[in-house]
Design brief:
Length: 239
């Protein structure tokens, strides 16, 4: 993997086919987790031609190997009175409470959770589709146009939030320690086969968490560099 760099086409990273598939599957997983918290195909469904935010044509889609119901574009209907905090702590990170006051948080969730979950699903589906578009068989450029970069960055953030919860990460120090965790070989491995499997699963999640971090950070850096350049040009033109 090579992080994003700025290009005339937008922002370009280099990803192996296996990396694309893993990230697409994770995007689908997270979208599926959110699906029950957003209405589907309701009035004002997203993905219409007037959206103008990169969500055009976002429809039902499943990443490679997906076996569950396909994550799909969502709609927004009337506020529902039964909106409650998600039970899954990972989903609560994606749809956090807006206030420590339970009544205020419940009312805010009632009016905003559908739209928030729907927007997150749409951009996760968009990311997954972009990752496997063309089904490359070797390392190939992953191009994110400038007009969809904000949505892709948001989708990568949502994937990282879920991974962070699964890895029980709460502080920056814990995140920084992940690199040492991957580098640590350990002469005496666990004796129990379940411990071995659990360690392998954790190392996989750690690797993907760090991969998505590099992609997210390099994409945001490219977007900020473009923003500074635009402001510089605007300042020169006014001067």
């Amino acid at each position: 993997m090579r992080p994003f760099r700025t290009d005339e086409l937008g922002y370009v990273a280099e990803l192996e086919p296996s990396e694309r598939i893993v990230l697409a599957q994770l995007a689908g997983d997270v979208a599926q987790m959110l699906q029950e918290h957003a209405p589907v195909d309701g009035p004002g469904a997203r993905g219409d031609a007037d959206a103008g935010d990169g969500s055009e044509g976002v429809e039902a889609w499943a990443p490679p190997g997906w076996t569950g119901p396909a994550p799909r574009a969502t709609g927004s209907g009337a506020p529902r009175s039964d909106r409650r905090a998600p039970l899954d702590p990972a989903v609560r990170r994606l749809l956090p409470a807006a206030s420590d006051d339970a009544a205020v948080a419940a009312e805010f969730r009632r009016f905003t959770q559908d739209d928030l979950a729907g927007e997150k699903i749409d951009r996760l589906v968009l990311l997954g589709q972009m990752l496997v578009d063309g089904e490359p068989t070797h390392a190939a450029p992953f191009v994110v146009p400038r007009d969809t970069a904000k949505r892709v960055a948001g989708a990568l953030t949502d994937v990282r939030l879920v991974l962070a919860e699964r890895l029980d990460l709460r502080t920056d120090e814990q995140v920084e320690g992940l690199y040492d965790e991957l580098d640590a070989e350990g002469d005496d491995g666990p004796d129990d086969e379940l411990d071995v499997d659990g360690l392998a699963a954790r190392r996989f999640l750690v690797s993907v968490f760090l991969l998505t971090g590099l992609l997210q950070e390099s994409l945001v850096e490219g977007m900020l560099a473009d923003l500074r350049a635009r402001r510089g040009r605007d300042g020169d033109s006014r001067g």
